[in-house]
From TrEMBL:
It comes from the Bacteria. PANTHER family: DELTA(3,5)-DELTA(2,4)-DIENOYL-COA ISOMERASE, MITOCHONDRIAL, ENOYL-COA HYDRATASE. InterPro entries: ClpP/crotonase-like_dom_sf, Ech1-like, Enoyl-CoA_hydra/iso. GO terms for molecular function: isomerase activity. This is Enoyl-CoA hydratase. Belongs to the enoyl-CoA hydratase/isomerase family. Pfam families: ECH_1.
Length: 252
């Protein structure tokens, strides 16, 4: 099961559970979007906790699914699935708290960058390895977590940023030991769930309404470059090198 979903005492828990690294297939991204929209529509839900089981929060798209597919169906599906899931976090009518441990890379950045509140464990790290995989995307969301020039440097180099760095920026609300992460996320969630649900839903809508960047349009713009890169054939070489565990030809 890629996504688990449960509602308790006004708190919806959405759990990524897709071993070994929570890299989601096309179907997994759409399933995640469906669960988030389900939480949004449920008037009993006052807040969402988005977390993961296993070694890390999320490793992005399932590269092997894309490499093994013929044509561009998997690429288009992944683009649409990620767009749908990221938008479902952003558009959720109640606050979404992301609880992050281990790796949060690629598509994980899109989820966490669109969340309302982030809590993380000390072992968490964040990054976009897209350039090394022949793709682009989620810089829109990384720019919500780190300053502009740091974001650019991370995109160009595929360098990761530790949770402590994001905590210093104020992007991470609470930084805790791994065994305290879920408990901490739910403590924050219970504080929000105790407020008037009518006011909280209005607050979420108002905050989205004053956002300086249209995150959905911005991300869709990035995706166009990913498709162009795939047409050149460069992306195939970089993805294949990654899945085959070899050095990629970066001459082009």
């Amino acid at each position: 099961m890629a996504i688990r979903y449960e509602v308790r005492e006004g708190i919806a828990e959405v759990v990524l559970d897709a071993p070994p690294v929570n890299a989601l297939t096309v179907a997994g991204w759409f399933e995640l979007a469906d669960r988030l929209r389900e939480a949004s529509r449920d008037r009993q839900v006052r807040v969402v906790v988005l977390r993961a089981e296993g070694r890390g929060f999320n490793a992005g798209v399932d590269i092997k699914e894309m490499s093994n597919a013929e044509g561009f169906d998997a690429l288009v599906g992944a683009n649409k699935g990620c767009y749908d899931a990221f938008a479902a976090v952003y558009d959720c009518e109640v606050p979404v708290i992301a609880a992050v441990h281990g790796f949060c890379v690629g598509g994980g950045i899109g989820l966490v960058g669109n969340a309302d509140i982030v809590v993380a464990s000390h072992d968490a790290f964040f990054g976009l390895p897209e350039v090394d995989r022949g793709a682009l995307g989620a810089a829109t969301h990384l720019a919500r977590l780190v300053p502009q020039h740091r974001m650019r440097q991370m995109v160009y180099t595929s360098e990761n940023a530790p949770a402590a760095e994001l905590h210093a920026y104020g992007s991470i609300h609470k930084l805790v030991d791994r065994d305290k992460l879920v408990e901490t996320a739910f403590e924050v969630a219970r504080t929000i769930a105790a407020k008037s649900p009518t006011v909280i839903r209005a607050a979420k809508a108002s905050l989205n309404g004053i956002d300086p960047v249209d995150v959905k349009r911005s991300y869709r713009y990035e995706q166009g470059f990913t498709f162009e890169l795939n047409l050149t054939g460069v992306s195939d070489e970089l993805r294949d090198a990654f899945t085959e565990g070899r050095e990629a030809d970066t001459s082009k």
